[in-house]
Amino acid sequence: MKLDKLTAETMQLIEEMALHHENQGLSRIAGRIIGLLMVSQEPLSSEQIATTLQVSLGSVSTNMRMLLKIGFAEKKSVTGDRVSYYIMAPDTIEEELIQGLERILSLKNIIEKGMQIENLKDSELVMQRFHEMLEAIELYRESLNQMLVEWKSRRM
Prior knowledge:
3 strands, mainly alpha
């Protein structure tokens, strides 16, 4: 979609994308940038992003560095133009799935530490909770790994 053709409905979609990503731990502006890149048919400059989203260039710059680092965006150059342009990374969904997996594995490590605390070992209820959580985490991890393999094979 061309930037001059963004409808109120599309801007609402971008805001919903922002809220989703904010709930996943990113800033709301990062989520808005992801939403804008998702609906854009052409690479966008920082200035275009800032103007469209009505945010500062500094905020775009800060959030874009983070999105580049986590693999949600890519930098593109245009021959003869010194301005940097950005697109949504083609494997953004894979990165989101991998980050979900990393978050759940972090929780697994915390639970495993909890299982080593002596006074918690005495509680059958607490240990049952820990074991159930570990079982659910393992099922989630297996499912995500299978989904990633299937997704990658479909994209080839």
